[in-house]
Every structure is written in structure tokens, then in C-alpha cells.
Amino acid sequence: MKTRKDFLDSIKKAKLIVVKIGSARVSGEESKINDFLYDLVGDIRSLRDQGKEVILVSSGAIAQGKKLLAEESGRETIPNGKTTLAEKQALAAMGQNKLLNLYESFFSRVNIPIAQILFGRKDLNEEKSFSNLKQTFRQLLDWGILPIVNENDSVSTEEINLGDNDILSAIVASIVGADLLLILTGVDGFLNGKEKIDLFTEISKETESLATGPSGPGTGGMFTKINAAKLLLPFGIKTGIVNGEKKHAIAEFFTKETFGTLIGNGNYPHRIPTASEIQSHFFSFSTE
């Protein structure tokens, strides 16, 4: 039976890494956000200095839009926290620039240029669009630019169904053929009661039944994180679920075999799915 230690070498050798950040990491108290981003940019700078390529998938546009609207209006934006689809799309349109500017202000300090990529399901409907998207990612990485990805929330409804971008991050990892997806969350990994599970080589129905829903400003929770990892297993892509509130969480995952939860199975060959495979495989999952 494989243990987490068996995977440590392959994790360290991961060349292309997708990092997913949930809404909770970039919303709330400004000092807490700043502390998180300070560690994040330092860890990503370190990965790039090691010759690794990184793509960021970030939620938070809607949360930033709510904050901006509250500042402008001087009141709570949505009574009882209930938002219509139109309100969510409008908030995303407001918050997207604010979110990107926040990242720009931190990544510029470590000399990492960034670019924004927004896409939705329709961009994966055809092989041509799929190919163009892959080429865009590759060109940005070749230029040494950090792609920051979000769903095109202001014109689509998919974020509601994709679990605060957990599934979107898995789709991005599959499009680019990443070696590793790292999902930053607010807990130490997958918990069975009070016990953290270090490694899953498969995700069973029993495991899914133990996973919980969202507990913060996002729409995901452990259930969608586990399912994002499950969707990547057949393509030989490993997933790490780590506590983004811990200092230098990304760096810790690469050096400590007990940090976070790893979902991986060395028996699956690494490959990049086609556009039609992504449509049938990833979009068959729904959080509703």
C-alpha cells in the first residue's frame, strides 16, 4: 500500500502547478488578506525560481464587488445575503478589476507580471476554441507571465454550479496538462472527524459522504474540492488540499509529507484530455 512518502519525490519534481484560491482567502479583514497575499507571492516566486511554472485560479470577484458596492453606498449591499443571478453577475463585473488590482499590487513587489484569463464553458465547446485557450496559456507561461484565471462571471452562470471555482481549477489543470493542482482552503486538509487524512489514491462514495459543504463566503466546501481531485485522477494529475491560512502553505506542501491532504494515484498515466472529454467528464459534475 502506497503512503504519502512515496509521492514526495514526484511532488517536488512537479513542473507545472495550478494554485486555486477561494473567496475566503481574498475577502474579510484587510490585514488578513495582506498577510495571505504576502506569503502567496513569496511562495510562487520561490517556485518560479526553481524553474516551475504556475497558474493561479482565483475566486473572489463577487466578494470584492460586494465590498466595493458597500463602500460606495454606505450600506449592506444585499438584504439577508440573498443575491439574484443578475446581482451576482453585476457584482462580479464590479469586483473583477478590484481583485486583479489587488494581485497586481502584490506580485509586482516580487517582479512577477500577471495576466487575466476569463473563460466559461462555451469556450470549451469546440476543439478550435480549446486549442486557442491552451495556446494562450502556453504563450503567457513562455513569456514568464503568471496567468490569473476566473470564470467569466459577469456573463455566465456556471460559477454557481462549479463550487467556488474548485471544478474550474480542475478544468484549467487538465487543459494545460498540469502535474499538480493545489487548492488553498481554510482547514488543514480532508478531515474525518478530528483526524486528517494524509493521502487518498481513490475517492469513494464513502469519502464523498464525509465531505462537507461551504462554511464561508464561497460556494464550494470540501465536497467540491474532493470531486475536483477525483475528476483529475484519470489524467494522472495530483491534487493537494492545504490550509491557506498557514504560513507559507504552498512551500510547506512541497517539503512535508504530512502537510495537507494529497489525492494521487501513480497507476494513471499523465495525459491531456480533449475538449470533448472535458465537456463530458468535468461538466457532468454539479454542486446543485
From TrEMBL:
<keyword id="KW-0641">Proline biosynthesis</keyword>
<keyword id="KW-0067">ATP-binding</keyword>
<feature type="binding site">
    <location>
        <position position="153"/>
    </location>
    <ligand>
        <name>substrate</name>
    </ligand>
</feature>
<feature type="domain" description="Aspartate/glutamate/uridylate kinase">
    <location>
        <begin position="15"/>
        <end position="241"/>
    </location>
</feature>
<feature type="binding site">
    <location>
        <position position="59"/>
    </location>
    <ligand>
        <name>substrate</name>
    </ligand>
</feature>
<keyword id="KW-0547">Nucleotide-binding</keyword>
<dbReference type="InterPro" id="IPR011529">
    <property type="entry name" value="Glu_5kinase"/>
</dbReference>
<comment type="pathway">
    <text>Amino-acid biosynthesis; L-proline biosynthesis; L-glutamate 5-semialdehyde from L-glutamate: step 1/2.</text>
</comment>
<keyword id="KW-0418">Kinase</keyword>
<dbReference type="GO" id="GO:0004349">
    <property type="term" value="F:glutamate 5-kinase activity"/>
</dbReference>
<keyword id="KW-0808">Transferase</keyword>
<comment type="similarity">
    <text>Belongs to the glutamate 5-kinase family.</text>
</comment>
<comment type="function">
    <text>Catalyzes the transfer of a phosphate group to glutamate to form L-glutamate 5-phosphate.</text>
</comment>
<feature type="binding site">
    <location>
        <position position="165"/>
    </location>
    <ligand>
        <name>substrate</name>
    </ligand>
</feature>
<dbReference type="InterPro" id="IPR001057">
    <property type="entry name" value="Glu/AcGlu_kinase"/>
</dbReference>
<feature type="binding site">
    <location>
        <begin position="219"/>
        <end position="225"/>
    </location>
    <ligand>
        <name>ATP</name>
    </ligand>
</feature>
<dbReference type="Pfam" id="PF00696">
    <property type="entry name" value="AA_kinase"/>
</dbReference>
<protein>
    <recommendedName>
        <fullName>Glutamate 5-kinase</fullName>
        <ecNumber>2.7.2.11</ecNumber>
    </recommendedName>
</protein>
<keyword id="KW-0963">Cytoplasm</keyword>
<dbReference type="InterPro" id="IPR036393">
    <property type="entry name" value="AceGlu_kinase-like_sf"/>
</dbReference>
<keyword id="KW-0028">Amino-acid biosynthesis</keyword>
<dbReference type="InterPro" id="IPR041739">
    <property type="entry name" value="G5K_ProB"/>
</dbReference>
<dbReference type="InterPro" id="IPR005715">
    <property type="entry name" value="Glu_5kinase/COase_Synthase"/>
</dbReference>
<dbReference type="InterPro" id="IPR001048">
    <property type="entry name" value="Asp/Glu/Uridylate_kinase"/>
</dbReference>
<feature type="binding site">
    <location>
        <position position="20"/>
    </location>
    <ligand>
        <name>ATP</name>
    </ligand>
</feature>
<dbReference type="InterPro" id="IPR019797">
    <property type="entry name" value="Glutamate_5-kinase_CS"/>
</dbReference>
